[in-house]
Design a protein that fits this description.
Elements lengths: L2 H23 L19 E8 L7 H5 L3 H17 L2 H15 L3 E5 L3 E5 L12 E5 H11 L4 E17 L13 E15 L3 E9 L4 E4 L5 E4 L2 E9 L2 E9 L7 H16 L5 E6 L11 H7 L3 E2 H5 L26 E6 L2 E9 L18 E8 L1
Parallel strand pairs: 1-2, 11-12
Antiparallel strand pairs: 1-16, 2-6, 3-4, 3-6, 5-6, 7-10, 8-9, 10-11, 12-14, 13-14, 15-16
Helix pairs in contact: 1-5, 4-5, 6-7
Length: 377
């Protein structure tokens, strides 16, 4: 029995045990504790984290492939990259970050669900169902192994795309003369809530502005981006927690700017104070797109400069295979923003150093995350 199989089996046992304990110990109609431990004062302090998990590969080569054979080769490399960037090892490091930071709420981006099917049907329709890697299940398993209970309380299912890859075990497709299987990527934004945090009103949606590109397979692909939110009460502070992942700054920066404007409209319509987290793909230094400046001009407050005067707080990005021993982060695009009378008590990055020296992957993600302790005044 391999070490990987043994660890997976052990995780399943842990998850079953945790689920059974919760089912026995929690009455069906138990009242929430509003996120405040018994006997502790309502000090209105809230700890949050934003973390881009990294889907495990770049997609540029796939999108820009000029011919169908090159398209298939790019998809085949991307699948291997996902294997090589080893999310199980990275999830172990990510779970340690969450354990050490102890956030009440976590906004996750690129919570990838990878699935396959053999043989490829070449339809372009995302219909593969065989599990390949489920980042959410793997991360929650690692958290459960540490005795931590973080529940997915809101999810936005975004881009859902499928493409063929070279698979020697697959039958040769008579149309293209290649042995092909399909691999499917479903992208999600997820909010995790720590056990004991009262949440309600989960919401999610997709932006009206979306990037659509043609592929060498003869179809078009839309990289759907979305948002998710939940209302929460922690230590006497009632607020809305909003999490999103905006489009990249290229090839059409106007799409990201439009998504940022939509996000701002959603946030400012909230009747509650808001904590906004996510990967906004707009450098806070103003070197890429105006999205960050627009969010600030629209009334949102960046928690990072409020708590850090000299640290640039760079969060992006390591190389595609996470093999670089020295950080290549050059921009600050992962943000914790607020709307309402919030005070930033402490804000720091996590995952800004390698979690190990060898073997690759050396980094928990191609992004660093941000943890913030905020107080509602």
């Amino acid at each position: 029995m391999s070490q990987r199989f043994s660890k997976t089996t052990r995780r399943l046992c842990v998850l079953v045990a945790v689920a059974a304990a919760v089912a026995v110990a929690t009455p069906a109609a138990a009242a929430p504790n509003n996120g405040t431990p018994p006997g502790e004062p309502n000090n209105k302090k809230v700890a949050v984290m934003t973390r881009n998990l990294y889907l495990g590969t770049g997609l540029t080569d796939i999108v820009t492939a000029p011919t169908f054979p090159q398209f298939v080769e790019a998809v085949t490399r991307a699948r291997q990259n996902v294997i090589d960037t080893d999310f199980e090892a990275r999830a172990d490091a990510l779970a340690t970050e969450i354990q050490q930071a102890g956030p009440d709420l976590v906004g996750l981006q690129e919570v990838s669900l990878w699935r396959t099917q053999t043989p490829a049907d070449l339809s372009g329709t995302p219909n593969a169902t065989t599990p390949f890697q489920d980042f959410l299940a793997i991360l929650q398993s690692e958290l459960a192994e540490r005795g931590l209970a973080y529940t997915a309380v809101a999810t936005s299912t975004n881009a859902d795309v499928e493409a063929p890859y070279l698979d020697p075990a697959a039958p040769v497709n008579p149309v293209v003369g290649l042995p092909l299987s399909d691999i499917r990527l479903t992208d999600r934004d997820v909010i995790l809530a720590r056990s004991g945090v009262a949440t309600s009103n989960p919401q999610n949606g997709h932006y009206a502005a979306q990037l659509t590109v043609p592929t060498a397979a003869g179809s078009t692909v839309t990289f759907t981006r979305g948002w998710t939110s939940v209302d929460a009460t922690v230590n006497g502070a009632s607020f809305r927690f909003f999490n999103s992942h905006l489009e990249t700054e290229s090839p059409v920066p106007a799409i990201q700017v439009a998504q940022g404007a939509e996000a701002l409209g959603i946030v400012t319509a909230s009747p509650l104070p808001v904590i906004v987290v996510g990967d906004f793909n707009s450098d806070a230094a103003g070197t890429t797109t105006p999205t960050y400046a627009n969010l600030i001009a629209g009334g949102l407050v960046d928690a990072w400069p409020a708590a850090n005067r000299n640290d640039p707080g760079l969060t992006c990005c390591q190389n595609e295979l996470l093999t670089n021993p020295v950080s290549e982060n050059a921009t600050r695009i992962d943000l914790v923003l607020t709307r309402g009378d919030w005070q930033a008590k402490k804000v720091s990055t996590v995952g800004a150093a390698p979690f190990r020296g060898a073997p690759a992957p050396l980094w928990a993600s191609d992004h660093a995350g941000v943890v913030a302790e905020l107080k509602l005044k």
